[in-house]
Amino acid sequence: MKLKHNVQGNALAVSDEEPESPKPMPKSPDLGPPLAEVDIDPVTDLNEEVPFPSLAVEVIETLSISPARSLHTVEETISLPSTSSPIDNSSPSPVIDNSNGFTDIPKFSDSTQPSSSRSRPRAKVPLERGFTQVDWLRLTRTQTDLAGLNGATNRRFITKAEVKKHQSEDDAWTILKGRVYNITHYLKFHPGGADMLMKGAGKDCTLLFNKYHSWVNAEYLLEKCLVGVLDLES
């Protein structure tokens, strides 16, 4: 070991061994051959179109479905009605009327119409001159005692036995909807004829009345012919 003196005169111990050499720096990993330098012109390259990968192609390729698979899925999802069941041909086919030269207007045969809808209206009997409904309304305004009450009130109860006594053309009473009317003067004014009206003389004609002309306001038409109210206990 050697002694050396510094500037201040102090002794310093110095080893005889040589100092170790510095360790070499670690090498950087091999990144492959260096990239080639590219000369980029900022003016000319702005005008050039840079190709980009088409995203639409990738999306279509990703979402593409086989046609056979999609049709098979639709058939499994939607159940179609079976066409193997026989068709009901019981309903009659329309009959085409060619009499007027047109073939596009179908008419159905009479067998399809219910029998109740083909009921024929009653034919009116020709009335004598001066015996129309207008003449009857005029008569009810001029005649005050068409019921033949002779001053008696029509607010009374009448039994069926009493009504039965009046069943002639000269003296005809009838029961209609719980009221008793003297129809003697109305016989010739009846549109269906006197014979039809006489079928209700002396009895209750409500069913017969509703069968042919239930829409007629009999209370107004025969107001001046009211005799009384039917006694329901009779």
TrEMBL record:
- Give a single Pfam family match: Cyt-b5
User: Per UniProt, which keywords does this protein have?
Assistant: Heme, Iron, Metal-binding
Specify the superkingdom: Eukaryota
Ranges where the record places region Disordered: 1-45, 80-124
Biased composition regions of type Low complexity, renumbered to the chain: 80-94
Q: Which Gene3D superfamilies match?
A: Cytochrome b5-like heme/steroid binding domain (3.10.120.10)
Family statement drawn from the similarity comment of this UniProt entry: Belongs to the cytochrome b5 family.
**Protein name as it appears in the record:** Cytochrome b5 heme-binding domain-containing protein
Q: Which organism is it from?
A: Ceratopteris richardii (Triangle waterfern)
